[in-house]
């Protein structure tokens, strides 16, 4: 199984590399007319120096990459940056791509679980652009597409789970969503780094039913614990009675302990129990 997973990941990496290579190392030929336009643009740039230099110099920040198009084609060499790069004013255009990790909230989604319970679930997704060229060339708006795909993936994944699984296995659901999203957005140059389930909201009637069930379970456990305590107490009393029966002096000592306890409570009336043996001389046979 490990060999199969390694082979699968190797195939995914090779496909990703092929897509990147096909876009970044495509034939940059723009034809004879295109070369003529580029030459005229260069000539115009040299004739208008030094003013034109301000139109040729572009700067991208550390977290950005620039995709340069020359007459509609991505130029050879891939994204530029960070730092300084040059373009031709008349024939070149560029698009800045933010490479930082982006976070967005998945709006609450009404989901019907596998056991036919309607719940509202929301989450949060962390992703970043891994390949700027694919994010520009393969899709019109990679960020909006990732958001929409996250919503549908959340509904699809939760639709295969029972309510108890949704409430207890959030990490597993989040990991499943991350894997599905990462595979789907790979062709767009997007890397999904993390997915988290934020909140699961149940219908009010179901909340009341679950609260009543939990209260009943707690009462049942309390009764069991009380019954076990009574049983243990009765066993202890039985053992104590056996010890007292074997030693009459222990019964008198218990009398004295009881009197001490009563006196400590400052009662006005004290009942002193007498052993029956003391009354036998006065009893007529």
From TrEMBL:
InterPro entries: Band-7_stomatin-like (IPR043202), Band_7 (IPR001107), Band_7/SPFH_dom_sf (IPR036013), Band_7/stomatin-like_CS (IPR018080), Stomatin_HflK_fam (IPR001972). This is Band 7 domain-containing protein. The lineage of its organism: Eukaryota, Metazoa, Chordata, Craniata, Vertebrata. The keyword Ion transport does not apply. PROSITE patterns: BAND_7 (PS01270). It comes from Denticeps clupeoides. PANTHER family: BAND 7 PROTEIN-RELATED, STOMATIN. The chain crosses the membrane at residues 32-57. Residues 13-22 have a biased composition (Basic and acidic residues). It is found in: Membrane. Residues 55-214 form the Band domain. Belongs to the band 7/mec-2 family. Pfam families: Band_7. Keywords: Membrane, Transmembrane, Transmembrane helix. Residues 1-23 are annotated as: Disordered. One of its GO terms (cellular component) is plasma membrane.
């Amino acid at each position: 199984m490990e060999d199969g997973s390694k082979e699968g990941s190797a195939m995914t990496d090779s496909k990703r590399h092929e897509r990147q290579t096909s876009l970044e190392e495509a034939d940059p030929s723009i034809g004879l007319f295109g070369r003529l336009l580029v030459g005229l643009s260069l000539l115009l740039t040299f004739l208008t120096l030094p003013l034109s230099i301000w139109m040729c110099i572009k700067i991208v920040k550390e977290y950005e990459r620039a995709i340069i198009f020359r007459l509609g084609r991505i130029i050879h060499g891939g994204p530029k940056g960070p730092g300084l790069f040059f373009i031709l004013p008349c024939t070149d255009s560029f698009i800045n791509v933010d490479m930082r990790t982006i976070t967005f909230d998945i709006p609450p989604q009404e989901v019907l679980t596998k056991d036919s319970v309607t719940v509202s679930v929301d989450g949060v997704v962390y992703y970043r652009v891994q390949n700027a060229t694919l994010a520009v060339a393969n899709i019109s708006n990679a960020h909006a597409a990732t958001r929409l795909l996250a919503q549908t993936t959340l509904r699809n994944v939760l639709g295969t789970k029972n309510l108890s699984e949704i409430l207890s296995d959030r990490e597993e659901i989040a990991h499943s969503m991350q894997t599905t999203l990462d595979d789907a957005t790979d062709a767009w140059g997007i890397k999904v780094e993390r997915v988290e389930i934020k909140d699961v909201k149940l219908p009010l009637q179901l909340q009341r039913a679950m609260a009543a069930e939990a209260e009943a379970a707690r009462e049942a456990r309390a009764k069991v614990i009380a019954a076990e305590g009574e049983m243990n107490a009765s066993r202890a009393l039985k053992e104590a009675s056996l010890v007292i029966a074997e030693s009459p002096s222990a019964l008198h000592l218990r009398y004295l302990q009881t009197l001490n306890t009563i006196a400590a409570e400052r009662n006005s009336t004290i009942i002193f129990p007498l052993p029956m043996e003391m009354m036998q001389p006065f009893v007529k046979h």
